[in-house]
Amino acid sequence: MKVAGKVWVVTGGGSGMGRELVLQLLGRGAYVAAADRNAGGLTGTADAAGADRERLSTHVVDITDRDAVLTLPDEVVAVHGHVEGLINNAGIIQPFVPVAELDDATIQRVIDVNLMGTLRMVQAFLPHLATRPEAHIANVSSMGGFFPFPGQTIYGASKAAVRLLTEGLYAELLDTDVRVSVIFPGAVNTGITSNSGIVMAATEDQGKMPILSPARAATIMIRGIEKDKLHIYVGPDARLMSLAIKVAPRAAIRFVQQQMSKRLPSAATLSRR
Question: Which one of 87, 197, 201, 223 is most buried, counting C-beta atoms within 10 A?
Answer without folding.
Answer: 87
